[in-house]
């Protein structure tokens, strides 16, 4: 089963992705984590992306798409992909379709965690304290939300026409959201 968890920053994508990973013995594909790792290791990619990431801007499609390619063709992970934070642009969505089709895979479920802006700001402020993420200050949060609305919202519109698209109320409690998702996938 391949799944996309979709939603604005702070909607709880990572939490639900982790839940699915444990429940279905699959793999969380978090491009945010992959990019943060590049920065931590101070790689060539890390040096290139540090400013845009700390500024709440998207990393170039080319870089993110490249990072993803290896994972999709990994036979060990085939049909066990839980995407968290990817795709975020139409270009990425199309790239994902191509890579999945080339590797004989498909998307089984797309979940959209819908949460309003006020709730997100509160959640991210809490996460900043817990996880010490450098891109979680108030101004960056607002920028990331605006970027999401501007660039990622069209991706949502693109997917919402699919029969495997499901909108879930992301303001519910974590376990309520997980139950809802589980109900749909089982
Ligand atoms: P996340 O951990 O998913 O909230 O991502 C944190 C930051 O990483 C985002 O604000 C972007 O700067 C960058 N990022 C993560 N995933 C992507 C992606 N698919 N495309 C472009 N930038 C991304």
Could you write a compact summary of the structure shown?
This protein has 186 residues and is α/β, with parallel strands linked by helices. It has a single domain, classed as 3-Layer(aba) Sandwich (Rossmann fold), CATH 3.40.50.300. The chain has 8 helices and 5 strands; from the N terminus they run E-H-E-H-H-H-E-H-E-H-H-E-H.
Secondary structure: elements and pairs:
Blueprint: E1 3-6, H1 13-24, E2 27-30, H2 31-40, H3 44-54, H4 61-72, E3 81-84, H5 90-102, E4 109-114, H6 117-131, H7 138-159, E5 165-169, H8 174-185
Parallel strand pairs: 1-3, 1-4, 2-3, 4-5
This protein binds adenosine monophosphate.
Please give a structural write-up:
With 186 residues, this protein is an alpha/beta fold. The chain has a single domain, classed as 3-Layer(aba) Sandwich (Rossmann fold). It is 58% helix and 12% strand. It contains eight helices and five strands. Helix 1 packs across helix 8, helix 2 crosses helix 3 and helix 4 packs parallel to helix 5. The longest helix is centred in the last third of the chain and has 22 residues. The protein is globular and about 40 Å long. The mean pLDDT is 91. The site of adenosine monophosphate has 16 residues, from helix 2.
């Amino acid at each position: 089963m391949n799944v996309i968890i979709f939603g604005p920053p702070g909607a709880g994508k990572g939490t639900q992705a982790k839940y699915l990973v444990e429940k279905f013995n699959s793999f969380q594909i978090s491009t945010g984590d992959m990019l943060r790792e590049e920065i931590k290791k101070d790689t060539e990619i890390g040096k290139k992306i540090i400013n845009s990431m700390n500024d709440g801007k998207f990393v170039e499609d080319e870089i993110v798409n490249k990072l993803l390619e290896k994972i999709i063709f990994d036979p060990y992970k085939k049909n066990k992909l839980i995407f968290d934070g990817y795709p975020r642009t139409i270009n990425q969505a199309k790239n994902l379709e191509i890579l999945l089709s080339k590797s004989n895979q498909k998307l089984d479920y797309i979940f959209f965690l819908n949460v309003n802006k006020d709730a997100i700001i509160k959640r991210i402020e809490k996460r900043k304290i817990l996880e010490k993420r450098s891109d979680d200050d108030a101004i960056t949060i607002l920028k990331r939300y605006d970027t999401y609305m501007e660039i990622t919202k069209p991706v949502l519109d693109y997917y919402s026409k699919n029969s495997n698209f499901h909108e879930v109320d992301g303001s519910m409690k974590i376990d309520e959201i997980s139950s809802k998702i589980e109900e749909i996938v089982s």
